[in-house]
Amino acid sequence: MTAAPVRRGRPGHSLDSLLDVAVAAFNERGYDATSMEELAARLGVTKSAIYHHVPGKVELLRLALDRALDALFAVTEEPEATTGRAVDRLEHVVRRSVQVLAAELPSVTLLLRVRGNSAVERVALQRRRELDRIVTDLVRAAVAEGDVRPDVDPAVTSRLLFGTVNSLTEWYRPDGGLGADDLADALVASTFRGLRTRS
């Protein structure tokens, strides 16, 4: 007796490829202006082929936002982000966040555009605030350890750092000749030079 075949979804249209197309459309047209019909047309499939993977458009948005947020939260759990001096942990989080942005540019771009217009967006914004808190706590710890200038409020420093990181979505293109590592090196060199206390 042979085993039943494993259900793998429609050939050539994995959930990941569907998500890539959806994120591109959401970024180009806006989430509200993008219909399931348009997504199906872009994929060259019927709407029912999309519903084979997800129950609806809102699930595509949730998955896209989670893709970006999960990658960013994973950075804060890496060993280099959890042990050692706070300023070094902060630098690691900033450097790796740039690399995540480069690797997940469309999803991070979408994340930065949400405004809390739906339950899914509000959850995403809450998770972003938690990331902000983690970074602000690292800045506070680095100030307390004497490695970061104490004359700027830690919350402001955190916002400035990630405002700089987030601005990369406006101009960075992975195929533009500047690699993610070089980009991270440049950003860390330019921002941390002004943050670290002079020895």
From TrEMBL:
One Gene Ontology MF term: DNA-binding transcription factor activity
**Gene3D superfamilies, per database record:** Homeodomain-like, Tetracycline Repressor, domain 2
SUPFAM superfamilies recorded: Homeodomain-like (SSF46689), Tetracyclin repressor-like, C-terminal domain (SSF48498)
HTH tetR-type domain mapped to chain residues: 12-72
Query: Which positions make up the DNA-binding region?
Result: 35-54
Q: Which key words tag this protein in UniProt? A: DNA-binding, Transcription, Transcription regulation
Where is the secretion signal located? none
Q: What is this protein called?
A: DNA-binding transcriptional regulator, AcrR family
